[in-house]
Amino acid sequence: MSRSPADGxxxxxxxxxxxxxxxxxxxNLIESNAPAAREQTRALLxxxxxxxxxxxxxxxxxxxxxxxxxxxSSLLSRLVAQWRARDRSVAVLAVDPTSRRSGGALLGDxxxxxxxxxxxxxxxxxxxAGDRLGGLAPATRAAASxxxxxxxxxxxETVGVGQSETEVADVADTVAVVxxxxxxxVLQFLKAGIMEVPDVLVVTKADLGRVAxxxxxxLHAALRxxxxxxxxxxxxxxxxxxxxxxxxxxxxxxxxxxxxxxxRRLRARRMHALDDFVAEYGERGLRTVGGRRQATKWLAQxxxxxxxxxxxxxxxxxxxx
Amino acid sequence: xxxxxxxxxxxxxxxxxxxxGHSDARRSNxxxxxxxxxxxxxxxxxxxxxxxTGYDPDDELARGEVGKVGxxxxxxxxxxxxxxxxxxxxxxxxxxxxxxxxxLLALYIVTAEEHGxxxxxxxxxxxxxxxxxxxxxxxxxxxxxxxxxxxADTIAYTVEHVPxxxxxxxxxxxxxxxxxxxxxxxxxxxxxxxxxxxxVRERVPQELMGSVFGRISFFVNxxxxxxxxxxxxxxxxxLWDELGRDRYGVEDHKQRRFRYGVQVNSLGLTEAQPENxxxxxxxxxxxxxLGRSARARALQLPAWNEALGLPRPWDQQWSLRLQQILAYExxxxxxxxxxxxxxxxxxxxAELTQGAREEMARVAELGGAVDGVEYMKASxxxxxxxxxxRIESGELTVVGMNRYTETEPSPLTAGADGGILVVDPAVEAxxxxxTERWRAERDTAAVEGALDELGRAARDDSQNIxxxxxxxxxxxxxTGEWARTLRDAFGEYRAPTGVGEAAAVTSEQIAExxxxxxxxxxxxGRRLKFLVGKPGLDGHSxxxxxxxxxxxxxxxxxxxxxIRLTPSQIANSAAQEGAHVVGLSILSGSHRELIPAVLxxxxxxxxGELPVVVGGIIPxxxxxxxxxxxxxxxxxxxxxxxxxxxxxxxxxVGERHGLDLAATA
Lengths: 321, 665
Known about the structure:
The structure holds two protein chains of two kinds.
Chain A lengths: L7 H9 L6 H8 L4 H13 L2 H4 L6 E7 L5 H14 L4 E7 L8 E3 L14 E7 L11 H8 L5 E7 L4 H6 L4 E6 L4 H9 L7 E4 L6 H16 L6 E4 L9 H14 L2 H28 L2 H10 L7 H13 L1
Parallel strand pairs in A: 1-5, 1-6, 2-4, 2-5, 6-7, 7-8
Chain B lengths: L14 E3 L1 E2 L4 H13 L5 E4 L2 H5 L22 H7 L9 E5 L4 H14 L8 E4 L4 H7 L6 H18 L3 E2 L1 E4 L1 H5 L4 H20 L7 H7 E5 L5 H21 L13 E4 L13 H11 L10 E3 L12 H17 L13 H23 L7 H21 L32 H16 L2 H16 L5 H11 L3 H12 L17 H17 L4 E5 L8 H12 L3 E4 L6 H11 L3 E6 L4 H14 L7 E5 L3 H10 L3 E3 L6 H15 L4 H4 L1
Parallel strand pairs in B: 1-10, 2-3, 3-4, 4-5, 5-6, 7-8, 8-9, 9-10, 11-12, 11-13, 13-14, 14-15
Helix pairs in contact in B: 1-3, 4-17, 5-14, 6-8, 8-10, 8-13, 10-11, 10-13, 16-17, 16-18, 19-24, 21-22
């Protein structure tokens, strides 16, 4: 095995050419903290930036989040199967909520996502969350933008409610929050504004019949009172007989079609660059670029096609002035 | 109770069985006939894993498992051969079968019909306890809801049509194997019984509930702490009686009797100095026979060499003889209950009943045993971990394993076969061909019609599944077809692994391991990632779970996705997840087929360079062979020190990546 890290630009080129088999190596690189690997990661991200691609990465980046135990894995198994039936390649980035108290983490434990192992157009990778429930793993955003160059659909799955959908919204094109019937807290969170209104709300366990229908009705009422008429609310059953999966995919597609993709991706990239800068140089580093507001303003003036590495370099250059 | 110290008449012994079966129906039938000739008084059929989980021998998932841990029964013809020459009107047959219990019972009923024996005459037991499969043994096939319905259906059907049959054997046995304390064993088994009875109550008229209650039997474990174990059985009798009276309104006290069969503990049997296991088995047998008022109805004993591999007929005969000596040579059966009035026994029983009641209340608060599976599973993983900790620290003595380990070479394992049964590798191909032949020769239209009907019955919750199942057996359907039809109707299911909930623990050794992991991870650039996989159909996941939790505690990122994965699923995950090392666990004897298949699949997935370690019940000769195939290390039950295993794994990754760990230390 070679000691030097993989060649980021080469991996980027393979992803650009839709070589899905480059995904594991790309993720190994992106997750690596070794200084040489981080250089290569920047090269990889630069080679999948809109500037390099000539457009936004074509994938639909979908965030799927919700409280533990609502059946997200079963739902994802069905969704992946359905996307595959529509001949779309799918990458799933599962962010595991396991605490890192011992440093280690147990991944893939929450009932795994069922995929056909012979199907090379499906990729599943799990990583441990940071230290907060619902938080993204540090490498998830970079991973999502890299895979978005190669796959048709990139799913980011996180666990939590009230915070997780906000973080996922910073990176995904479409955010679906999954809840089960009778989760009154989600309703309260929505009404109280603790939780941002998602693009799609999915109520699982449609097999419960009236209970599930009631939950859908309650959500509709809550959304109306918030004036959020764009949010689709769907009821699905992931266990046999499955129901509502196709409609859910249609709803995700519709959201994506309505979306100003360039605007949303641009915001995500700028946020990503700023967060990476803060992670690297801390609050003190932020002050050297004039504080968060100034930094955000500066980012807003940059070329929309710039990738995260270029934006980050720009911030670093300002800090050095 | 009489004041005389002796019974007027010596008691009749319990039913003596041997859990047996391997390869195909013909070979197992011969074995059964020999066992009966040796004085065995009942049959206990061991099925192979494909039969237990509903796959035909030619299914991809059956690969390597056909005829291994039991007999392969795929067709009505197989059942006919299995029972040839056995008097079904007199025989009492116990079948260790759960997810596919309704199907195997149907095959038994149909075969008996051919023998001219009416269903009313049939005696025996189908294990049929699915909740403990989620908790411990892993041979489930369907989700909890439909599984509970299948159980309720078989109970409702047999109470009416096969009245002498025990349609379910609620198992505390496997809970102990998974690490349960006596209190957990009692509480979870009884909570499970409540879930079953509540489900049946929905499907039979109240006036039948007495007969239903009376037909529920238990399958219990007995460990080597045999005094406490005996108290456990008395506590269970007490609680069961109470449950029948108070919860289900059963008036007849005979119907409230706690009836149980036993297989004594395998968990405590050691690979080191395996001859010592004979004593353990004898003492454990005392736990379930000593006191008359809580004596087992049926007993089967493991063999001395179960931690080495599958027992041979001679090994099983040795265990049967133990039962016969206990029953016929000793004076055990001449006395009334010898613990009556014992303060110690009464005190122990009171403690256990109290503890069990509290734990049962906890499960009830979670909504009962079905909804409480996750809680119970996590508690068992926790208990098992505590048990390992005590063995590792020496707090718990296991003679020959963590104490008194000096030994002379054992002549028992010196033979050419290494002291175990090796199933002829040709069996799998034979079985595949036989099943294909069966399919070719039957009336296809009749089978298709019967399976359609079965599917309809499955989708209609108001129907009982048994009549359509029996019709499918008569038409000549196969085990895999029956299960496939139900999988289509009910969906598939993966049980919780219980490992995610295990609290993080630490100790001096674990802290040292963490430093090692940090050092290696830093050198690797990202955290050391370890994929733990269980290929094949084997559901004995305790080992894999304990390894996963320990590796997590040692600071690794651990990917563990549960049981029953194909070699390509495991290889695919290893490649996609970016694992640095793969650990495989197999206890079913299928390692010679499955491990090379995983290695091939890893190469195909572009991860051929990953180091792979293997753990399980693996004979020494096979371990050498596996190392030649490219396995980096093989661990067997004698490698009980998990920290040492972790150190090896960390070093292995370091070495493969050319890291000079000594220098950075």
